[in-house]
Amino acid sequence: MQGRDLTLWTLFVAGALSVGILLAAFLAALVIAQRRRIAVEREYAQRILSAQEEERSHLARELHDDALQRIALIQHELDQATHHGTPEMAHRIAAVAGELDDLSVVLRTAAHQLHPSVVEKAGLPRALGALAEEYGRAAGLRVRLDMPPADLPVRPAVGVAAYRIAQEALRNVFRHAGTNEADLTLAAAGGALTLRIADTGAGFEPETGGAAGGLGLIAMRQRAEALGGHLTVAARLGGGTVVTAVFPHPEAL
């Protein structure tokens, strides 16, 4: 009888261990599948963003190499025509030339927004500084900067993503925050790159789906997550909003 009980106990323990092993294997398979799904989604998002940036870069080159060059040729022809016409005609030609100058500025600005080549040429800190100056001139937005050295080594994809996030965040400050001041901080520490844009404006709740919490916020999060990082939006102490994007090592540095 005692031997029979021992056999039953042994079978019970063996069965429990088998169930435990199967359960552990099942859980491990779930974890692996989840990690693979996240990796596939991240790769897919990165491919979409890369394709978008390539298309923007192509359009920017077309604007610069084709449209702007044609405008330059037209301006040259107009300049030649001013010497062979009446004073009234020269006045009209000068007015048209002025309109072309304005159009050139618009197209150059559009080309820069489509593809921020300054990130590749001057580095992320200088590119963000130029972005802050641009918002100061065009929108009257005073952006206080806290930047590391201009030669901060950042992968091109991360540099463009950080620039786009800052661009969208400052656009939201200008359009929705109800303030003309913002703080832009870029820091590299602990193997991670951290971008922070804060304001003291009205703030917003991302869950409400308002203008500031809509597609722009989704795009910012996708850009960060596609490169292994993350983005948070939180209320600022005393009022306002803080947008923080973190790109972890080795994805960023």
Please provide a written account of the structure.
It is built from six helices and five strands. Strands 1-2-3-5-4 form a five-stranded mixed β-sheet. It is elongated. About 2% of the residues have low confidence. By secondary structure, it is α+β, with helices and mostly antiparallel strands. Helix 1 runs antiparallel to helix 2, helix 4 runs parallel beside helix 5 and helix 5 runs antiparallel to helix 6. The chain folds into two domains: 112 residues, no CATH class; 127 residues, Histidine kinase-like ATPase, C-terminal domain (Heat Shock Protein 90, 2-Layer Sandwich), CATH 3.30.565.
Concise account of the structure shown:
Helices cover 65% and strands 14% of the residues.
